[in-house]
Amino acid sequence: MTLHAREINQDVRELGELVGDIVEAQCSTEAFDIVEQIRTSSVEYRRGDADSREDVEQTIARLDPEMQDIVARAFTTYFELINLAEERERVREIREGTQEGTLEDSVADAVRKLSEAGADARTIQAVLEDVLIQPTFTAHPTEARRKTVKAKLRNVAHDLETLDEVRLTDREEEHVERDLEAEVTSLWQTPQVRDRRPEVTDEALNVQWYLENVLFDVIDDVYDELERAVEAEFDEDVEVPKLYEFRSWAGSDRDGNPFVTPEVTEETLERQREVVLPMYRDRLKEMSGILSQDASNIETGEAFDERLAEHKDDLPGVADEAEERYPDEPYRQKLKLMRESVLRVGDVRSGGYDDEDEFLADLRILADDLRANGAGVIAEAHVDPLVRKVDTFGFNLASLDLRDHRAMHTDAIDEALEREGIDYKDRDEDGRVELLTDAILQDDQVIDMEATEELSDDAERVIRRFRRAAEWQKEFGVNAIDTYAISWCEEPSHALEVLFLGDQAGIVDLPGYCGFDIVPLLESKYALDGARRIMGTLFENEAYSQALEARDGVQEIMLGYSDSNKENGFLAANWSLYRNQKRLASITDDFDVEMRLFHGRGGSISRGGGPMNDAMLALPNETVSGQIKFTEQGETIAEKYANPSIAERNLEQMLDAQMRARYEAMQEPVEEIPEEWEAAMETASEAAREEYVDLLETDGFVEYFEQATPITVIENLNMGSRPASRSEDRSVDDLRAIPWVFSWTQARCIVPGWYSIATGIQAYLDDGGDVETLQEMYEEWPFFRTKLDNASLALARTDMEIAEKYADLADEDLRERIFPRVREEYEETVDLVKEITGRDSLLRRDWLEENLERRNPYVDPLNLLQVSLLDQSHLTETERRTLRLTVQGVAAGMKNTG
Prior knowledge:
This protein is mainly alpha-helical. Helices cover about 65% and strands about 5% of the residues. It has 38 helices and 10 strands. The longest helix has about 35 residues, at about 65-100.
């Protein structure tokens, strides 16, 4: 059976031609000719048919500002559309693989592999009972596109899907192609670059869109696939528990973002509930059209009858209406009452559900009664999917995590205690721990959370956030906002400060009750190396141990990939994270605490990105408890979750990896790594770190970075509500990880993704190591293989010829001091990676290489135009807009920002 009418080459060709037609129609034949000349010259150079890029550079140099804008728009628009063509190809592969039964990393594939490995139904049940996957959407500013542009691109994607999957008459096809041309024309005429910085509310709405319009619909399909796979593989029943929970930082992550106020957080909570509850009512209404069974044809059970009677007592007026409308239809009567109870959630009127558990109980009673009456297929098709949705999204759509920098808590407590005549700031760490512990354990209030008049603005905001958090939990339920992450947590007192503020606000009442998980974010080398000092002190602390016991003995610990990489470099950071994960597992095991790791991954390789399923399978066995939490950011969210088929595929891959990883951890709780491998990594990572740090500390490096990358443009791109830097200081330490990576990616010199790997590996070889051992590590050690493959992708996306154009923008002495060093490290890293992997190409997958070959000739002109504009000391408003557009175009072409 043929599932599709098109293929990617046709999509790419026709979309490219459409862009050309629109340029000619909307601008001029001259504009079309110039764009085409630049395109063909760039393609010829990449194919080896031209000796240099001189033709492209000369053409760009002759452009006037208006024509520069047209060229930038043309290539940016091209990439926006080609990304959709590649998305469509992914969907084709998913559908064809599913149809043929050849799709790897699916839940069916996971069940089959575990069965082949010797797992029986009881083992599968145990694995599933442990698994909980928590994707956490952040508002980190790595999505360069406007909301309006994204909406138009989704319409284009829908037209491509129709042409590909629907059998159309010639006339119908003409209509779709006309709609496609109209949408692309509108896209061309729509400004690509934001004219204002998005507000926090905009970012929260963006995250909400994916939850509401995609994930809400596909989540039960994943469960259905798993249940079918288990049923096909085993004779015994396996009960599939809750496996996913979506969380969000959008609207609640205060770290470095003064615009995330308590009012914004409350608005986010309210809006999410206002979104999810009507969706439940809609599903109940649809169900009422199906469950029209007459009482004379069924025999309802005792549990159903009792709950129906109770429900009628709770809502007598609605019950009378339901009986009158559905006199002999008990299921419809029940559904009417359930709709009303959902409507009254959070209402002043009685009869509303207190929480989602009460709603779930009604749904399960309804499903059981249908099955008892021989209508199991109706329960399976209509009730079970809603059960999965409610179990996953609750009454809040996504639970919010609060987060702030540790210094904000310290300073707020210092001010509040000073007002009470208590010195906090001048105490050493032991003194702070003692004071906080005693304060938490005593019954009397220490600070007045209502009296904030004399506090600084920052301190007042911190105190008010905790006070309001207690109110939010009462209004929206504890699960709505039950996690507090502490950025740059480096001492035990930093976690106790949050516990203390929670205690003073009424979120904590020890012993016995703690309303949130306190999550240390360990990201600096000092914090990671001091993990036992930090966590051990907390686990032994009387107050913290009581709080932990109240949270069922589960300690969530967040690992910061981005800033760790920026501080130490790719190889050293990843080895430190791996080693410290094992160390944290040992610490929590010593104290009989269950650990849930929260991986603060970004979209780019240097910020922990890369294929999620590979990353999950490469984690140390000791850390795989079954529960895992990780951030999803920026353009990665759009790439993974904008299309329902791809979203479902990503969720399946996560589950496949987590099931397999958990089973492996059950079989081999401690991952034994040969001492020779560990020694190799220790030697290589330390040398790599020294080289990386030395580069950053090179005299004039910050000035070179500012001159040889578009960082100053990126800082003013209006990408996110959060500032690009933590302060006004011009230093690498002060710069946030996202613009740091974004800038290097734009300059096609992705230093954060590979720099100093060669130095590290060479240090190991010079110390008596051998390539054969490294090759063995690559073949047999998932951690090493995954990191090297990820670095290979960053290397493949790097282009030293283009990077040299950016380097030429820097002062000559800076360029000669820094760029040759970077280029030499790149060349040596490429050679070593190829030797270790045994490949002629950097990339493991052919389709990735094809993808880069298709994109590079079209990214190059945008880079060259960007360099030309950066080289000018004074720009017109049109030129400034074009410069910002080139950043967006390169991001679309590289499919990556930060």
